[in-house]
Amino acid sequence: MEPSEQLPGRRVNPFEVALWVFGVLAIAAAVWGAGWANGTLSLANGGYYCDAMGNCAERYDYVQVHTVLGLAPPVMTAGLLSIVVALAIRAWPAVRPVHGRVGL
What we know:
Structural class: mainly alpha
Helix content: 55-70%
Protein name: Vitamin K epoxide reductase family protein
Keywords: Membrane, Transmembrane, Transmembrane helix
Strand order of the largest sheet: 1-2
Transmembrane segments: 17-37, 71-92
Low-confidence stretches: none
Distance between the termini: 46 Å
Radius of gyration: 24 Å
Number of helices: 2
Mean pLDDT: 81
Number of strands: 2
């Protein structure tokens, strides 16, 4: 059965799609980045890599790791906030009043 041309179809809001995509990507990046940075700084590897010859070198750039650790919480917050806003945009038509203005 094909949709009637008289019934208004539900159009996709590109801003809502962008909020969902940004939210998911930001949360995933924050979780992955924090895991990577914490794994790099863990006491198990001490931040150094030693080859079979005994030559040791640092495995990470200090500034890069601490930048990721500093940015992970705000990026996570931005991702969660964008998902909340996308849900609010989706819920807005359900909670707004259906009737028009009431005259005195």
